[in-house]
Amino acid sequence: MTEDETKLNYQDEIQYLPISKIEANKHNPRQRFSEEEEDELIASILEKGILNPLIVFKKSGSDEYVILDGERRFRASNKLNLKELPARILLDEPDKLESLSLMFHIHHVQKDWTQFSISITLIDIIKEMGMNPKRLSKNDRAQLIKKTSLSNYKINRYLIFQDYPQEVIDRFLRSEIEEEQEPGADPDILLEMYRPIRQITKLMPELLKKYPVEKIIDSCIKKKANDVIINNKEFRFLNKSLTAADKGMVNKERLKEEIIKFIKNVNTTPESIYLKTAETYFQVQSLAKMTETLTEEINNLNLANISSLERTKITNRLDKLQVLIKSRFDI
């Protein structure tokens, strides 16, 4: 039980409220609901009635009630022209931060909100707590974890969504709430492309003038929709290539040309860019580490505990390795 949930105090009995006196919560980020969801709920209400009362609070200076939980039931009941609804009424009217926090806990626990709905509400909570979403201190994060019961990992995840241009956010939000999700519009694309886009911004900002973030993400969605990308982790090849370029081990202009192909051609994959530009750099890095490990193992080898047969096996293999090195490196 969270701190906020322990503060929930209701009137003793469930009451039936006139539906005309109930209104939706303007702070609910999920402003649209699919017709399919509503039709299913309508069929359930017709068959069984409303099994779970709404959770509401009374507006001060008014005889109207605002919904904290149950907006879909409210909408479905309106379509059925029901006159009253069962509700649990909070004893006290919450302020905006309390309202956001209570809705967040209710819907997040029920897994009733989409990822972007959670993200939008998280930003609102952060702002209401007087914090800057882009500059959260360690103490800010501790308070936020306590307020939302989210892990630091999930907080980072949801904040990344909101770091994209509004056009991108709106596109994914629409896809989440429409009856049929836009093919390829997987929110995890935004998580995997976050670092590559930051690297592109740093290394080749001129590219973004012609191919803005919206265009890049559109290309990623199309690749996912056409099964060119199967696993979102494949986008990490882009980050590897850009990391090599940042270290001066890959020609930036050549890499920029490949990234433009990636944006313009649906069949160009992150892995193909990596193989053309950065694979050799990472192979060299890997060989260097293995060489260091082998050298260390040989130095630490206790020769007194090794039989003559084992010595012969090791030296034979090292001799073969030396022949290979001379052949490959033309020494």
Provide a brief overview of the structure.
Helices cover 60% and strands 7% of the residues.
Task: Walk me through what this model shows.
The structure is a single chain. The protein contains 16 helices and five strands. It has 331 residues and is an alpha/beta fold. Among the domains are: 1-94, Conserved hypothetical protein from pyrococcus furiosus pfu- 392566-001, ParB domain (Alpha-Beta Complex), CATH 3.90.1530; 188-280, no CATH class; 301-331. Strand 3 (54-58) and strand 4 form a beta hairpin. Helix 4 runs antiparallel to helix 5 and helix 12 (236-246) runs parallel beside helix 14 (270-277). It is elongated.
Top keywords for this entry?
331 residues, alpha/beta, Conserved hypothetical protein from pyrococcus furiosus pfu- 392566-001, ParB domain, 5-stranded mixed beta sheet, 16 helices, 5 strands, elongated, disordered N terminus
